[in-house]
Structure formats: structure tokens, C-alpha cells
């Protein structure tokens, strides 16, 4: 969620054109509101972490620490990979901002998923991008498209793991995944997105200045999200390996990815809590007690990654905000010097010390 004061006092309109000055009182109110929401969000994160830790503390303390460390590293790579590819989504929509900035926005905005209601991750990341200078419509559209493409990639990875993961009596999960993937890919096609966008404009009466990206570009983004899910599956398997000596890599990874898909579809549930664990236990092939321990321990690791990422992102955002005015002043100074130099040294028209052109005055 957005925290701290708004770095710029100027915002772009939805067309990315002329800027308008944000009233000082509104900016102060928005900053206070951002701090309040940020504090509430951090409170929910701490409460969730304390709750999950109390459920899994004994099992985690008895697990092999080396595998837990590997799981934590892979979890960090998974979340960073998701943030990294969000910049590709922004680029497809015409608003590439740079990997470092996208990473910072992602980790701060994603804390909203721990609040009740599925809208908060969208609002959190969308507001971070908007406050960073991305036009509002493009900022929120990038988050929505990133979520859709992210979970389509999850379905693609899950399908790839199916031949190695499931027995014949688990056809229900197969049908579930196979049915959603082509439907989701079809929704990304411009012939589907353009009417949906037109309907949204009519319903909201907003001038949403968005260009629908080519279908090929969106499919490429789906593929780029694939490694993130391999990291998710690897992190979950590493935790399972810390708890039990012989978990199936393919089956545990499949169950992990499938559980995240189910948690995403359970929109009202904060971060898919409870839903993810139930799906994972049913599909992982471990004993129910071991599956429960792994599911809860993995959630603890990902909460730690989210919190650490946000803790690093907040000072990074302040650094970005401090650099922006310096770059602007440097560009303005360089432009002024170049203009003065061009005025003084023009080809074919020598200057004199008084600033003239060196040519005799024309006769009337």
C-alpha cells in the first residue's frame, strides 16, 4: 500500500499530457491517508505473521534449516520475478518505468493483499504507479493485466507439471486448469479486450485513454511470468524437503501452483488464506499433517519476503524521489548552456564581444 508523502506535487492527466498542480491541502490529506492505510496494512501483516507462526512454530524449529533457507531464497526470487515482469506489462501499455522502480512499487503495493477484500493489491500497486507519474488509467490497467497474465502463466506451468504430478483419479484438477487457460488467453485478444474496454468506458463514463496491446505481446508476458512459478514450486518443495525426506518435486510444485490459483480466485479472502492451504494439502501427495505444516510454513516464508521487500522499497522510493529533482535541474541547466552556446556560436555569423552578429547593419 502507498505509504509516506507523495513525492511529486504535480500529477499527469490520464492522457499523459499537460500536468496539473495538486492543491497543497489535498496533497497533505492524501499523504496522511496513505500513512494511515500503510499503518493498518502493516498491522494486518504482523497479525497474519504472528498467527501463522503460532501454528507452525514447532514444525519449523524441528525442520532442517538449510532447506528452509533455500526455500526463503527461492521465495524471494519468485516475488522479485513477479515484480520484474510487471515492468514488462507497463512497457506493453506504453509506460515502462524501469526495473528498480517497478520492484519498489510492487513490494509496497502488494502489502495490500493482507487486507480483507481482493481489491487492495490492485489499489496498492495502482496508486504507487500513479504517484510515480504513470497516468491513472494506465497504472491500474497494468496491475489488472499483470494479475491476469501472472495466473495464466501459473495455469501454463501447472499443465506442464500434470504428466509428472497427478494420478488418474485426480481428473477434476486437470479439467479445472485446462478449462481456464484457453479462456484466459482468449480474453487477452484485442477483439475481446476492445469491446470490454468500450463497455467499461460507457459504464464508468470515464475517458480511459488506453491502447489495447497486441495479443502476441500479451502472450509473451504470460511466458515471461513462467519462471516466477517455477520459483514458487521450488520454494514449496524445499520447505517440504525440510519437513519430510522424500517429497515428490513435481507433485509438490504442482500443488503449490494450483493452490495459488485457487487463492487468487477466492477474491474476498485476504491473500487466499485458508483456501491455498486446503488445496495444497489435497493435491501435494503428503500426509495431511505434513501437508498442513508445509503449507503454513511456506506462507510464513512468503510473508517474510513481502515484509522485507517493502522494508527495502520504502527507503528506495525516497532515494528515487530525491534523485528526480536533481536530474530535472541538471537537464534544465544543460539545456540552458546549450542554448546560450548556440546563440553565441552560429555557423557563418561570427559574434563580437558586445553580442552582435559581426555583420554591418542593413541600410534602410
Provide an overview of this structure.
The protein contains 12 helices and 2 strands. It is mostly helical and 364 residues long. The chain has one domain.
What is Rg?
26 Å
Q: Summarize the helix and strand pattern as letters.
A: EEHHHHHHHHHHHH
User: Which whole number gives the mean pLDDT?
Assistant: 74
Measured as a percent range, the helix fraction is over 70%
**What is the end-to-end distance?**
70 Å
Structural class: mainly alpha
Biggest sheet character: 2 strands, antiparallel
Low-confidence stretches: 3-35, 328-332, 348-359
Task: Going across the biggest sheet, name each strand in turn.
Answer: 1-2
> Helical region count?
12
Q: What is the total number of structural domains?
A: 1
Brief account:
By secondary structure, this protein is an all-alpha fold.
Keywords for this entry:
364 residues; mainly alpha; two-stranded antiparallel sheet; 2 strands; 72% helix; globular
Topology summary:
Blueprint: E1 10-12, E2 19-21, H1 24-62, H2 65-92, H3 99-109, H4 120-131, H5 136-165, H6 171-187, H7 190-204, H8 215-224, H9 226-243, H10 249-265, H11 275-283, H12 288-344
Antiparallel strand pairs: 1-2
Amino acid at each position: 500500500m502507498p505509504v509516506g508523502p507523495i513525492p511529486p506535487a504535480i500529477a499527469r492527466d490520464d492522457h499523459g499530457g499537460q500536468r496539473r498542480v495538486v492543491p497543497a491541502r489535498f496533497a497533505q490529506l492524501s499523504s496522511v491517508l496513505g500513512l494511515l492505510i500503510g499503518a493498518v496494512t502493516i498491522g494486518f501483516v504482523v497479525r497474519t505473521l504472528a498467527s501463522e507462526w503460532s501454528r507452525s512454530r514447532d514444525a519449523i524449529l524441528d525442520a532442517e534449516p538449510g532447506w528452509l533457507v533455500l526455500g526463503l531464497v527461492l521465495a524471494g526470487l519468485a516475488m522479485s520475478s513477479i515484480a520484474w515482469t510487471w515492468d514488462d506489462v507497463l512497457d506493453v501499455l506504453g509506460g515502462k518505468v524501469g526495473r528498480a522502480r517497478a520492484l519498489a512499487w510492487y513490494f509496497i503495493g502488494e502489502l495490500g493483499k493482507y487486507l480483507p477484500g481482493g481489491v487492495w493489491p490492485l489499489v496498492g500497486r495502482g496508486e504507487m504507479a500513479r504517484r510515480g507519474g504513470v497516468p491513472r488509467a494506465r497504472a491500474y490497467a497494468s496491475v489488472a493485466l499483470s494479475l491476469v497474465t501472472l495466473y495464466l502463466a501459473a495455469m501454463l506451468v501447472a499443465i506442464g507439471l500434470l504428466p509428472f504430478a497427478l494420478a488418474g483419479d485426480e481428473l477434476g484438477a486437470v479439467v479445472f486448469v485446462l478449462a481456464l487457460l484457453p479462456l484466459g488467453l482468449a480474453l487477452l485478444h484485442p477483439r475481446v479486450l476492445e469491446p470490454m474496454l468500450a463497455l467499461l468506458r460507457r459504464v464508468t463514463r470515464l475517458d480511459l485513454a488506453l491502447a489495447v496491446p497486441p495479443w502476441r505481446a500479451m502472450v509473451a508476458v504470460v511466458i515471461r511470468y513462467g519462471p516466477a512459478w517455477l520459483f514458487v514450486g521450488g520454494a514449496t518443495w524445499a520447505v517440504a524437503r525440510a519437513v519430510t525426506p522424500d517429497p515428490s518435486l513435481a507433485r509438490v510444485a504442482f500443488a503449490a501452483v494450483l493452490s495459488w490459483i485457487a487463492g487468487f480466485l477466492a477474491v474476498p479472502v485476504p491473500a487466499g488464506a485458508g483456501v491455498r492451504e486446503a488445496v495444497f494439502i489435497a493435491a501435494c501427495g503428503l500426509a495431511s499433517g505434513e501437508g498442513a505444516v508445509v503449507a503454513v510454513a511456506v506462507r510464513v516464508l512468503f510473508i517474510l519476503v513481502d515484509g522485507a521487500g517493502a522494508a527495502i522499497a520504502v527507503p528506495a522510493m525516497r532515494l528515487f524521489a530525491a534523485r528526480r529533482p536533481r536530474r530535472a535541474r541538471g537537464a534544465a541547466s544543460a539545456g540552458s548552456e546549450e542554448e546560450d552556446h548556440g546563440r553565441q556560436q552560429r555557423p557563418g555569423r561570427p559574434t563580437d564581444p558586445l553580442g552582435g552578429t559581426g555583420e554591418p547593419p542593413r541600410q534602410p
